[in-house]
Design a protein that fits this description.
The complex is a heterotrimer of chains A (459), B (627) and C (103).
Chain A lengths: L1 H19 L3 H24 L16 H21 L10 H18 L5 H19 L6 H32 L4 H5 L7 H17 L8 H8 L2 H27 L3 H24 L4 H22 L2 H27 L11 H4 L1 H15 L5 H16 L3 H27 L11 H19 L1 H10 L2
Helix pairs in contact in A: 1-2, 1-4, 2-3, 2-4, 3-10, 3-13, 3-18, 4-5, 5-6, 5-10, 6-8, 6-9, 8-10, 9-10, 9-12, 10-12, 10-13, 11-12, 11-17, 12-13, 12-16, 12-17, 13-15, 13-16, 13-18, 15-17, 15-18, 16-17, 16-18, 18-19
Chain B lengths: L2 H4 L3 H15 L6 H27 L4 E11 L2 E9 L1 H24 L5 H23 L3 H19 L6 H32 L4 H8 L4 H18 L8 H4 L5 H10 L4 H8 L1 H4 L3 H22 L5 H21 L3 H28 L12 H4 L1 H15 L5 H16 L1 H26 L7 H6 L5 H16 L14 H6 L12 H26 L7 H10 L3 H51 L4 H22 L2
Antiparallel strand pairs in B: 1-2
Chain C lengths: L4 H21 L3 H25 L6 H31 L13
The chains are: A mainly alpha (459), B mainly alpha (627), C mainly alpha (103).
Chain lengths: 459, 627, 103
C-alpha cells in the first residue's frame, strides 16, 4: 500500500518539479530519490510499517509475492533511471513529465501486483496503459513515434473493450468482482462464465504481447523512443504477466483443464512467432521487440503450468529478463545506428560496454551460468512438473536454440567484425551500472537460490 | 575429510582466475606475463590433480559439497564435485595435456599482438575451466553447464582469427551443431527430472531400476544425441573438420584431446543407465562403426595436414563409441586416454610442421622434412605408429581391446573395426611419407625458412611422444604377461568386460597387425615418398607409370575403389545429404518467417481482425469440446 | 410486453458488435474512436442490466460503470491528443495513412 501511495504522490511531485527547475540533473535527482524512497517504503511495508492505514475492503491484498515482485520492479527501474535517465532529455523538452508518467505507471503496477477484484485489475491496467500511450508518442516530430502511439492506442482500447465485456459476463454469472468469490465453486463453467474467461484470456494476452494478440508489439516498440521501449519491454511487460498469473491462478485455477489448452496454444504460437521472426530482422531494436515476444512465450509457461515452481520462476524470470534487456537497450540507445552493423567493432572501441552487453545477450539466449539460463530452467521444469504439456517443453527447448542465432548475431558484430561504431558519450555512472548489471546477471546465474532466498528473507 | 579434498575447488578455480586476469588486463600485460599466468594456473591445477589422483588411487573417492545451487520445491540440485576414479583420471588428462598445450602455445602464438595473445590465453583458460566443470560435477546440471561452456569456448577459439569470414562461419557452424546436440541432452535432463525427480548421478542410477525400459531407452537415446554433437558422430560430425580453422594448438586441445571426449565421458558416467537400454547401445555401436569407417575413408583423400588429422579424430571417436556400444566402457575410456596422448602429439607436431613451413598446410607441397626438423619428425613418427596401432605402442593396446570386445559382440562390428584400423594406418603413413620423405616440393622461400621449432614447442612433443609410447602399458593384455591395472582402477565406477579364452584372437591380432602394417608401410612408402615437385597427383601418376605390378593390383583392388568411394561419400554425404538437411531446416525457417512477416502488414485493421478471428476460433473450440 | 434481461442483453450485444464492426471497417480515426466508445457503453449496459435483474441487492455493477465512464473520458482525451498530433504530421485522419512500419 505504501508503494502505491508514494508513487502516486511522487508522480505529482515530479510534475510540479518541472515548473521550478529546468535542470535535467536536478529532475533526475528528484526521480532517483523518489524511487529509492519507494524501495524503502515497500520494504518497510512488508515489515508492517504502513505510512497510512487504509482499509481497502479486500480489494488490494499484498502478499509475499507482491512485495517480492514490487522490489524487483523498483530495483530494475532504479537501474533503468541510472542508465537511461539522461537519454530521456534527448526525446523532448518535457523531462519532468516523462518521469511523472513513469511514476504513475509504477502506481498502476503497485495495483496490479496486489489486486483482489476485477475492478482493481481494470483500473491498474488502465493506469499503466494510458501514460504508456503518451510516452510512446512523446517524440512528437517523429512520424514513427506518432504512428506507434496511434496504433498502440487503437488496439489497446479495443482490448480494453474486450476485457470490460469479459468482466461484465463474469459479473453476470457470479455477481461479484472478487477473485476469490469467482474462484470459489467454479466447478462447472456456464457459457456466460466461459465466454468472459476467454475474453479476459485474450485481453490479458494482448497486454503481455502473446501471439496471436502480439501484432502491436513490433510496431509500437520500434516506433516508440528507444528509452521508453526499454521500460515498456521490461518492467511493464513483467507486470502484465504478474497480473495475468494472479488473475488466472485465483479465479480460474480450479478449472485449469478448461483453458490450459488455449494457454498452451498461445504459448506455442508466441514462442514460434517471436523466435522465427526475430531471426530475419535487420534492426536490433526490432529484433529486440520480437525477442521480447519470444521471452514472453517463456513467461507464459508459468500460466500453462500454474504451480508454485511456475510462480517463483516468474519472479526469477522477471528479474533476469528485465536486467538483461535494460542493459542491452541502454547500450543500444547510445548507438547512432540501430542495425546490426551499428555494433561492428564495439568490442575494440568500447571493450567494457561490449563485454557487459555480451553478458546480457548471453543471458537472454539462455547460456548456462547466466540468470537467463536458470530462468528458462525454472520455467521449463515447472511445465515438466505439471506433466500435461511435455510437447510444449520440447518446443520451448527448440526455440531456445533458435534464439541463440539472433542474439549471437549481435555478439558476432561486436567482436568478429571491424567497424567504427558511433557511440554517444557515456558517463562513469553508466559504466558502473552496466558492470553491476552484468555482475548481477552472472551472480544470479550461479547462485539462483540467492535471489529467491534474498527476496524471502531480506526483511 | 582429507585436506586435499578441501582444496579440490581450486582445480577449476585456478584456470578461471587465469581467464579473468588475462581477459581483463589483456591490453596491459606483456606477452611473457600473460603466458606465464596462463601456464602457471594450469600447472597448479595439474599438481593438485595429481595429488587428488593419488588420494583416489588409495581409495578415497568422495563427493565434495560446495553450496546449494537450485532448491525449488522438491527439486534439489547441490553444487557438488564428484571426485572418483573416472573423474580424477579425466582431471589428469585435461590438466596435464592442457598444460603442455598451453606451454606450446606460448611459442606458437608469439607473433600475435599483446592484446590478442592474452585474449587467446584467456579463452584457453576458460575452456579448461569449463571442461573441468564438466567432468567434476556430481550431477547432470553441472555437467551441462560445463558442456555448454566448452561449446561456447570452442566458438570463441575457432573464430579467434575473426578477420577471416570463413573462420567465423566455421565457428558458428560448430556452435550451432553443438547446440543441436545439446537439445538432446537438455531434453534428457527434463525427462530425468520428470521421471526421477533428481539429477544427481547416484540418485538417478539408484532410481533407474524402477523406470520402464522404454523410458530408459528414451533418456539414453537423447543423451546419445547430445554426445553425437559434442563428440562429432554421424550425423553431427561435419563441424569438427571445419573447426580446424582455429589455431593449431586449439585443434589439439579442443578438437582432439578434451572437448570431443566429453560425449564418451558422459556415456561412461551414465553407464548404469546405458546397460539397461540394449537398443541404445546397439545404435551407439553401429553409429560409432559407421563414423569410424566414413571418416577414415574421407581422410585418405585429404591433402590438408590438419584436415587429415581432423577426420582421423572423428574416426577414432567412432572407435571409442564402438567400444562403448559393445559394453566395453573401460576400453572406451582407455582409448580416450591413449588417443589424447597421440592425437595431441600429432596435432602439435603438425603445428610444428606448419610453423616450419611458414603457414603451408598442403602436404603435397611438403616432403623431405625429415632431415630439416628432426625432433618433430621423430615425435611425429611415434605418434603415427601409435595411432596406426604398431605393436606395443599405446594405440596398439587400446585399439586391440576395442576389436576384441567387438569380436565378442558381432563379427560385423569386428571386421568393420579391422577395416577401419587398416584405413587408419594407410592414411597416417601416407601423411607421414608425403610430409617427411621424398624431396621438398614447396617454394624456395619456404625451403629457405625451414627451421626446427624452439624448445618450448618441442618439449611438449617429446613428453607426449614418450606417453604415446608407454601410455598403454597400464593395461597390457594377459597374453603378454600384463595386468589390467587400468580396469582395476576404474572398477568402482565403470564396469569392465572380462575377456576369456581369446588367446588365439590376441595372437592373431598381433600377427595380423604386424603383417598388415608392414604391407601398408611398404606400399605407402613407395607411393608417397616421392621426389616430384609437382605435387601428389603427378607423383602418384608417376608411380602408376612405372607399372608396378603389385601397385596396380593394389590400386585396382583397394586404393582406387577406396578413393572413388571416399570421394563419392565425401561429396554425397557432406554436400548433398547433410548440407541439404542443414540448409533445408534453415530454408524452412526462412520461409515461415517470410509468411509471418506478411501478416505484420502495419495496418491496425488487419491486426484487429486477426485478433477477433482468433478469439472466435477459441470460442469455437470451447463450444465443440464442451461435454 | 415486459422488457426483460434478454432484451437488454441482445441490445448490448448488438451494440458491441456494431462497435467491433465499425472499428474494423471505418478508416476515419474519429469514427474508430466512436466505435470503441460503443463497445465500452455496451459493457456498461451489461453491468447495469445484470445488476438490476440478476443481482438486485448489490451495487458493484453500478459503481463499475462509473469507473468505466471516468476511464473512457481519460482515454478519449489522450486519443484526441494523439489524433491531432497524427493529423499534424500526416495531414490526414485516415488510419491507413501512417503505415511506415511493417514486417
Amino acid at each position: 500500500m505504501n508503494a502505491l501511495i508514494l508513487s502516486a504522490i511522487w508522480g505529482v511531485v515530479m510534475m510540479f518539479s518541472g515548473i521550478f527547475t529546468k535542470s535535467g540533473a536536478a529532475i533526475r535527482g528528484i526521480a532517483i530519490t523518489g524511487l529509492a524512497l519507494l524501495l524503502v517504503v515497500n520494504v518497510l511495508d512488508f515489515q508492517g510499517t504502513a505510512l497510512v492505514d487504509i482499509n481497502t475492503r479486500g480489494m488490494l491484498v499484498y502478499n509475499t509475492f507482491s512485495y517480492m515482485f514490487l522490489n524487483i520492479v523498483f530495483g530494475a527501474t532504479l537501474l533503468y533511471f541510472f542508465l537511461s535517465g539522461s537519454d530521456m532529455e534527448r526525446v523532448g523538452l518535457h523531462l519532468a513529465e516523462y518521469f511523472a508518467l513513469i511514476f504513475f505507471i509504477l502506481a498502476g503496477i503497485s495495483i496490479v501486483a496486489s489486486f483482489q477484484t476485477l475492478l482493481m485489475l481494470f483500473l491498474g491496467i488502465e493506469i499503466i496503459s494510458i501514460p504508456l500511450y503518451i510516452l510512446t508518442g512523446s517524440d512528437k516530430r517523429n512520424l514513427k513515434s506518432n504512428e506507434a502511439a496511434l496504433k498502440y492506442f487503437l488496439m489497446g482500447s479495443f482490448s480494453t473493450g474486450l476485457m470490460l465485456m469479459g468482466i461484465a459476463l463474469i459479473y453476470g454469472s457470479k455477481g461479484s468482482f472478487s477473485l476469490e468469490t469467482i474462484g470459489a465453486g467454479t466447478g462447472v463453467i456456464t457459457p456466460l462464465l466461459g465466454g468472459g474467461m476467454l475474453l479476459l484470456l485474450a485481453s490479458m494476452s494482448f497486454k503481455v504481447s502473446a501471439a496471436p494478440f502480439h501484432f502491436w508489439t513490433p510496431d509500437v516498440y520500434d516506433g516508440a523512443p528507444t528509452v521508453f521501449t526499454s521500460f515498456m519491454a521490461t518492467i511493464v511487460k513483467v507486470a502484465g504477466f504478474f497480473a495475468f498469473i494472479r488473475l488466472f491462478e485465483t479465479s480460474f485455477g480450479s478449472v485449469q483443464a478448461q483453458w490450459q489448452l488455449f494457454a498452451a496454444i498461445i504459448t506455442a504460437a508466441t514462442l514460434l512467432i517471436g523466435n522465427i521472426t526475430a531471426v530475419f530482422q535487420q534492426s536490433v531494436k526490432r529484433m529486440l521487440a520480437y525477442s521480447s515476444i519470444a521471452q514472453a512465450g517463456f513467461m507464459m509457461f508459468a500460466l500453462v503450468s500454474l504451480n508454485g515452481k511456475g510462480s517463483e520462476g516468474l519472479i526469477y524470470y522477471a528479474a533476469a529478463y528485465s536486467l538483461a534487456t535494460i542493459g542491452v537497450f541502454a547500450v543500444l540507445i547510445k548507438l547512432n545506428d540501430y542495425t546490426f552493423e551499428g555494433f561492428n567493432g564495439l568490442g575494440k572501441s568500447h571493450p567494457l560496454l561490449a563485454a557487459t552487453v555480451t553478458i546480457c545477450l548471453l543471458s537472454l539466449a539462455g547460456i548456462p551460468a547466466t540468470a537467463g539460463f536458470m530462468a528458462k530452467f525454472y520455467m521449463l521444469s515447472a511445465a515438466v512438473e505439471n506433466g500435461k504439456v511435455i510437447w510444449l517443453v520440447i518446443l520451448g527447448v527448440l526455440c531456445a536454440a533458435i534464439s541463440v542465432y539472433y542474439y549471437f548475431r549481435v555478439i558476432q558484430a561486436i567482436y568478429f567484425k571491424d567497424g567504427e561504431p558511433q557511440v554517444a558519450e557515456v558517463s562513469t555512472t553508466f559504466k558502473v551500472v552496466m558492470v553491476l548489471i552484468a555482475v548481477l546477471v552472472v551472480y544470479f546465474g550461479i547462485f539462483p537460490q540467492r535471489l529467491t532466498d534474498f527476496l524471502y528473507m531480506v526483511y | 575429510m582429507n585436506t586435499i579434498f578441501q582444496l579440490v575447488w581450486l582445480i577449476p578455480a585456478l584456470p578461471l582466475i587465469g581467464f579473468f586476469i588475462n581477459g581483463l588486463l589483456r591490453n596491459q600485460l606483456p606477452k611473457a606475463i600473460s603466458g606465464l599466468i596462463a601456464c602457471g594456473v594450469l600447472l597448479g591445477s595439474f599438481v593438485l590433480s595429481v595429488l587428488v589422483f593419488l588420494q583416489v588411487k588409495a581409495g578415497a573417492a568422495q563427493t565434495v559439497h560446495l553450496f546449494d545451487f537450485i532448491n525449488v520445491g522438491n527439486l534439489k540440485i547441490p553444487f557438488d564435485f564428484k571426485i572418483d576414479q573416472l573423474s580424477s583420471l579425466f582431471l589428469l588428462i585435461i590438466t596435464g595435456i592442457g598444460f603442455l598445450i598451453h606451454l606450446y602455445s606460448t611459442s606458437y602464438m608469439h607473433e600475435e599482438t599483446n592484446g590478442h595473445f592474452a585474449r587467446y590465453f584467456s579463452y584457453l583458460n576458460l575452456f579448461v575451466f569449463s571442461m573441468l566443470l564438466l567432468v567434476m560435477g556430481a550431477n547432470y546440471v553441472i555437467m551441462f553447464i560445463g558442456w555448454e561452456g566448452v561449446g561456447l569456448c570452442s566458438y570463441l577459439l575457432i573464430g579467434y582469427w575473426f578477420k577471416n569470414v570463413n573462420y567465423t562461419a566455421a565457428a558458428k557452424k560448430a556452435f550451432v551443431m553443438n547446440r543441436i546436440g545439446d537439445l538432446g541432452f537438455l531434453l534428457a535432463l527434463f525427462m530425468m527430472i520428470n521421471q526421477f525427480g533428481t539429477l544427481t548421478y547416484g540418485d538417478v542410477f539408484a532410481k533407474a531400476g524402477e523406470a520402464s525400459t522404454t523410458i530408459i531407452t528414451g533418456i539414453t537415446l537423447l543423451l546419445f544425441v547430445g554426445a553425437t554433437g559434442k563428440s562429432a558422430q554421424i550425423p553431427l560430425y561435419t563441424w569438427l573438420p571445419d573447426a580446424m580453422a582455429g589455431p593449431t594448438p586449439v585443434s589439439a586441445l579442443i578438437h582432439a584431446a578434451t572437448m570431443v571426449t566429453a560425449g564418451v565421458y558422459m556415456i561412461a558416467r551414465s553407464q548404469a543407465l546405458f546397460v539397461m537400454a540394449p537398443v541404445t547401445t546397439n545404435i551407439i555401436a553401429y553409429i560409432g562403426l559407421a563414423t569410424a569407417l566414413l571418416a577414415a575413408s574421407i581422410a585418405i583423400y585429404q591433402n590438408d595436414i590438419k584436415k587429415v588429422l581432423a577426420y582421423s579424430t572423428v574416426s577414432q571417436l567412432g572407435f571409442m563409441f564402438l567400444a562403448l556400444g559393445v559394453g566395453a566402457y573401460t576400453t572406451g575410456v582407455f582409448h580416450v586416454m591413449t588417443h589424447a596422448f597421440f592425437k595431441a602429439l600429432l596435432f602439435l607436431g603438425a603445428g610444428s610442421v606448419i610453423h616450419a613451413m611458414s603457414g603451408e598446410q598442403d602436404i603435397t607441397k611438403m616432403g623431405g622434412l625429415r632431415k630439416k626438423i628432426p625432433i618433430t619428425y621423430i615425435t611425429f613418427l611415434i605418434g603415427v605408429l601409435a595411432i596406426a596401432g604398431f605393436p606395443f605402442t599405446s594405440g596398439f593396446f587400446s585399439k586391440d581391446e576395442i576389436l576384441v570386445a567387438a569380436y565378442e559382440k558381432s563379427p560385423i562390428l569386428f571386421w568393420g573395426g579391422v577395416i577401419g584400423a587398416i584405413m587408419t594406418a594407410f592414411y597416417m603413413f601416407r601423411l607421414l611419407f608425403l610430409t617427411f620423405f621424398g624431396s621438398f616440393r614447396g617454394t624456395h622461400d619456404q625451403e629457405h625458412h625451414l627451421h626446427e621449432s624452439p624448445i618450448s614447442m618441442t618439449f611438449p612433443l617429446m613428453v607426449l611422444a614418450v606417453l604415446s609410447l608407454v601410455g598403454g602399458l597400464v593395461q597390457v593384455p594377459h597374453i603378454f604377461g600384463g595386468h589390467p591395472y587400468f580396469n582395476e582402477f576404474l572398477a568402482p565406477v565403470v564396469n569392465s568386460v572380462e575377456h576369456t579364452g581369446i588367446e588365439t584372437l590376441e595372437y592373431a591380432l598381433l600377427g595380423g597387425t604386424v603383417v598388415l602394417l608392414a604391407a601398408i608401410i611398404i606400399m605407402t612408402f613407395k607411393k608417397f615418398s616421392v621426389d616430384s615437385a609437382d605435387g601428389e597427383y603427378t607423383g602418384f601418376k608417376k608411380v602408376l607409370a612405372n607399372k608396378w605390378y603389385v601397385d596396380e593390383v593394389y590400386d585396382f583392388i583397394i586404393v582406387k575403389p577406396i578413393r572413388f568411394l571416399s570421394k563419392k561419400i565425401l561429396v554425397f554425404t557432406e554436400n548433398e545429404v547433410i548440407d541439404w538437411l542443414v540448409n533445408g531446416v534453415g530454408r524452412s525457417v526462412q520461409w515461415t518467417s517470410r509468411q509471418i512477416r506478411l501478416v505484420q502488414s502495419g495496418q491496425v485493421g488487419s491486426y484487429v481482425l486477426l485478433m477477433v478471428l482468433s478469439i472466435l476460433v477459441f470460442l469455437g473450440i470451447q463450444l465443440l469440446t464442451k461435454k | 410486453m415486459q422488457i426483460g434481461l434478454t432484451h437488454i442483453l441482445v441490445l448490448s450485444a448488438t451494440l458491441f458488435f456494431i462497435g467491433v464492426y465499425g472499428f474494423l471497417t471505418r478508416k476515419n480515426l474519429i469514427s474508430m474512436l466512436m466505435s470503441i466508445e460503443l463497445m465500452l457503453n455496451s459493457a456498461n449496459l451489461n453491468f447495469i442490466a445484470f445488476n438490476k435483474y440478476v443481482w438486485p441487492n448489490k451495487l458493484e455493477g453500478l459503481f463499475f460503470t462509473l469507473f468505466i465512464i471516468a476511464i473512457a473520458a481519460a482515454e478519449a482525451a489522450v486519443a484526441m491528443a494523439i489524433i491531432i498530433q497524427v493529423y499534424r504530421q500526416f495531414k490526414s485522419v485516415d488510419v491507413d495513412e501512417p503505415t511506415i512500419m511493417k514486417e
